[in-house]
Amino acid sequence: MNHRIPVVEIRNLTKIYRSGEEEDKTALADVSLDIDAGDIFGVIGLSGAGKSTLVRCINGLEGYDSGSVKVRGREVQDLTPADLRSLRQRTGMIFQHFNLMPSRTVAGNVELPLLEGSVWKHQRAARVAELLELVGLSDLADHYPAELSGGQQQRVAIARALANEPDILLSDEATSALDPNTTKSILQLLRDLHDSLGITVVLITHEMSVIRQICNKIAVIDHGTIVEQGKVFDVFADPQAQLTKSFIATTSNLDKITDLLAQDSPLVALEPGQVILRMSYVSKEVSEALVSYISRAFDLDVNIIFGDIDVVDGSPLGGLVVKIAGTDDHIKGALEYLKSRNIGIEILKS
Ligand SMILES: Nc1ncnc2c1ncn2[C@@H]1O[C@H](COP(=O)(O)OP(=O)(O)OP(=O)(O)O)[C@@H](O)[C@H]1O
Ligand SMILES: [Mg+2]
Fold first, then answer.
1. Ligand 1: does its nearest atom lie under 6 Å from the Cβ of 53?
2. Atom 12 (ligand 1): residue with closest C-alpha?
3. Which residues lie across from 91 on neighbouring strands?
4. Full residue range of the structural domain in which residue 173 is found
5. Residues 284 and 236 both lie in one domain
6. CATH number for the domain including 341?
7. pLDDT at 2 over 60
8. Quick one: pLDDT at residue 268?
9. Are 127 and 115 contacting, i.e. CB atoms less than 8 angstroms apart?
10. 119, 145, 196, 346: which has the fewest C-beta neighbours closer than 10 Å?
């Protein structure tokens, strides 16, 4: 495939649900985005924002009113029924509630998409075994979905979605029904599959932490409109839309300092010569041990009150709230040094 052509190219997409009795509902309005081969593209929005509608337009389950949705260079709405079937085969899909068939075993569920093709029975069995190995479920092949945990059921669904060797995997809230640890392991599995199979992932979620963990690009959708999109690191480092800011706030404890300051908590009480500072890691170049450096170089006591630094797309992102103590000149020198290292500096109390 030509890597210059986006795998999914959406231009000015508008989708309106019409029903006789109720008012028309505009689910998507003028949506444009590009998903490139190899992206793990996160789409985040509140309930009803239009996320599921967007994925349903991508795999041709839903028509649209205006604009264009091209998958692998071809307009989805114009596909013949045969081409549409092939689009869906090459586009795996997983859901919040797994959607497994309760009457079939794990192996039986994974085998389902293979039955439509012309694969011989013994080849199917080999393929199923291979897929179960890929998701770490070889031992459970003969079990039924009801005997599995949520995380295991989602693994079955992932194996089933990969059966026809898709190059796009659409994930609609696939971790929303799972606990935080299971969520982590499923996200890790998606990341591993992305890395080993080279599959492009479109990941729908309402949790910013999910995006932060595995995506490289993000689009924020609000009432059917994209309010912000870009590389995950850039959007986290400098969010523009209010909705994006509020999503990011849910992934960090750094805003708690505002409450502590408002309550005059003993944690933030100051003596002469002390200041409270928020340091934000917003540049990809930061790699040094800045806290110990300024402490040594400027003879300061540096006391971390809150810290939340994560590695996003290979670079540290987040920040620290610190109390520092020293002479005015030394503090000034340290602040200048930090600014020169591209650290965002905000004096919260002095
Ligand atoms: N088949 C339908 N008929 C009419 N309206 C619909 C239909 N499907 C979705 N809608 C409406 O379109 C809007 C977008 O729905 P959609 O399911 O895409 O949102 P979502 O972002 O996936 O929400 P959630 O996070 O709750 O899954 C909502 O207002 C919804 O009520
Ligand atoms: Mg949805």
1. yes
2. 27
3. 168
4. 8-240
5. no
6. 3.30.70.260
7. no
8. 85
9. no
10. 196
